[in-house]
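Is this the right way to post C-alpha cells for a design question? Let me know if I should format differently. Anyway, here goes:
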C-alpha cells in the first residue's frame, strides 16, 4: 500500500471535491500513509494568473485560459522535487482536487473551443491511477454555493446553465476513460457528505491495495 499512486477528484463547482480531498488526506494519514493533497489551478505562476482570470480581475481570451491550464498542469506534474511525478517516485499518494477532466468540461463548453483541441494540448499530462467523478445536479451544487457566497462574488464558471453542460462533459469524459481501460468511477455526490467521504476512501483503498 506504500507505493506511489495518483488519485484525482473531479466534478462541477459545489460538488464537494475540495473538502473530500482534504478528508481523504486525513483519513489516509491516520493509517500511516504518506499523502500529498494538491489542486488545480496550482499556486504556481500560471495558476496564479488563471485564478485572477476566474475572479475577473484580468481579462483573457478563453483559448488563452485553456492554454494556461495546460501549462499549469505540466508544471504541476514536472516541477523538480515537488511536482506530482517527483512525489510519486517518493512513494507518496498524491490526491488532486481537479485535473484534466476539468479542462475538458469547462474549456470545451466555451464558444469556439473544440474538445479535441483541449485534449491535444493536454496530451502530455499523465493519466491518474484513479479518477473519481463526484456527480451532482447543478441545481443542488448551486444551492450549496449560494449558501456560501453571493452570486455577485461567484467565479466565472459558477452558473447553472454552464454547469449543466459541464456536468454532461464530465460524465461522457469519465465514460471515455473507462472505455479506454483507465480506472475511473462516478459516485453520487448528493448523498450525505459523510457517506460520500467513506465511499471515496473505500474506492481509494481498493485501488492502493490492488
Amino acid at each position: 500500500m506504500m507505493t506511489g499512486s495518483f488519485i484525482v477528484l473531479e466534478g462541477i463547482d459545489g460538488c464537494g471535491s475540495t473538502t473530500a480531498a482534504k478528508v481523504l488526506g486525513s483519513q489516509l494519514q491516520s493509517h500511516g500513509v504518506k499523502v500529498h493533497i494538491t489542486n488545480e489551478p496550482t499556486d504556481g505562476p500560471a495558476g496564479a494568473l488563471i485564478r485572477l482570470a476566474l475572479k475577473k480581475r484580468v481579462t483573457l481570451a478563453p483559448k488563452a485560459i485553456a492554454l494556461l491550464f495546460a501549462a499549469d498542469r505540466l508544471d504541476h506534474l514536472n516541477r523538480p522535487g515537488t511536482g506530482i511525478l517527483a512525489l510519486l517516485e517518493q512513494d507518496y499518494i498524491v490526491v488532486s482536487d481537479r485535473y484534466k477532466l476539468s479542462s475538458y468540461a469547462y474549456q470545451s463548453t466555451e464558444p469556439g473551443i473544440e474538445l479535441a483541441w483541449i485534449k491535444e494540448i493536454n496530451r502530455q499530462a499523465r493519466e491518474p491511477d484513479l479518477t473519481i467523478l463526484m456527480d451532482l445536479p447543478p441545481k443542488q451544487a448551486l444551492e450549496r454555493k449560494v449558501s456560501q457566497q453571493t452570486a455577485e462574488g461567484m467565479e466565472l464558471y459558477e452558473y447553472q446553465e454552464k454547469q449543466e453542460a459541464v456536468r454532461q462533459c464530465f460524465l461522457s469524459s469519465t465514460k471515455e476513460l473507462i472505455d479506454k481501460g483507465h480506472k475511473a468511477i462516478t459516485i453520487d455526490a448528493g448523498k450525505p457528505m459523510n457517506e460520500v467521504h467513506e465511499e471515496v476512501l473505500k474506492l481509494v483503498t481498493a485501488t492502493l491495495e490492488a
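Format looks fine. Someone answered above. Worth noting: The chain has a mean pLDDT of 92. The two ends are 9 Å apart (CA to CA).
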